[in-house]
């Protein structure tokens, strides 16, 4: 059993590097978004569908720790986990490793509220909380 | 007299470089957008206002020629010119130079249609074509 | 027979959209880079290896035509073709379509010189020109 | 007296928005970098100079809290403060407000080590620690 873990792999783009030679720090947050995106698709509540139904998941908090250098064309693997951290907030945890060596490259999390299209926080719809509860329980 | 020329200066951000050491090529198109933005504000038809009135200016063609290297923290100067290239199309020309040396860094253009919020092309409103005609004539 | 065509598919990221609702125009140039990258890997001269051997492929000209709207989570397909357009210049052609419908989304090209790590243009190494000639001839 | 505070103002670019209508979350980290950049210039240790002298300031931790929506063309003001949080680590605090209304838009921090060009952490040079100590004491 155990909670659901979303997994994606992707290569670092040249456009994502900076002149220090590795990836630019803010890119981690764009990759975290890719992780959330595929996580939600896999648990059956695709974020594109959520938006079509009138819901948004704006980020209210983001945190990243950078552990090892990675650069252009490196293949990265990301694991994503999600949970409801209160009745109104969803938290995603992300762990980014070098796919070839397993070295931890970065880890962090984002916290989200559920909002309507104007940005106003709303109660999360049952189909979202149910889906997240189910995967958290490994069901 | 002569046509109106919009001028801005800005520094290259670290996030805009890549591991080749200079700025990443697509950044030129983001800077061209900044040039259009300030150009339109200066001729009295701010793009934010245009959107509030229900108009968009999607890019339908973009062209850039890269002439010299420039990198992080360099101060760049950009000149922007605009004209109606048909009854339905607006063209912006951009010229990017090193502000310290005058060296040409990049030049190019973008072509735009006027569209409604759904992206459907519409006839440009008179207040836009009038403003562009006036500045083109150096009025 | 016929020339080699590189093919990749990818989803538009949320970070690649803008408030007009579709993808932001400069993203096309980042995607063209992904196309070049996989093209070169497939013809046996990976760009990461090229950099390790002391060669760069800076963009000296870029052109994009935007044909149809595409947005977040859409699956896009890109075809990439390459050729030597003079003894010193490489040209990549890119065609971007909606993978579900086949609709042309954008097309364009980039022209590159071969340069040393300081950015100085150099004669392309034989292993690069040979590889490109071979695939152009469908060998 | 009191510690030195770096201040910059800038407009949100169209390229920095996403289809939710406001700025995309990772942009905050790019703006934090602009804040650090001008902060260091003002206290006399420009980051471009630091790189020329062989030092880098890679981010090892980043944190952002998003407090209010802001969008394209909004004028933002950012305050930046810096301190040595150990003998080897520098911390920058950033506070981002709407320049027109004073509303807090986002706040956060980044933690950095001092590294050589290969990315290896090194002891911060005295001219950096002295400059930061001096401004922290309001000297």
Describe the protein's architecture and organization.
Four copies of one chain form a homotetramer. Chain A is of the alpha+beta class. Chain A is built from three helices and five strands; from the N terminus they run βααββββα. Chain A has helices spanning 27-42, 47-52, 126-136; strands at residues 6-11, 59-66, 75-84, 89-98, 104-113. The first copy, chain A, has a five-stranded antiparallel beta sheet. Chain A is globular, with a radius of gyration of 16 Å. At the A-D interface, helix 1 and strand 2 of A face helix 1 and strand 2 of D.
Primary descriptors:
homotetramer; 139 residues; alpha+beta; five-stranded antiparallel beta sheet; 5 strands; 24% helix; globular
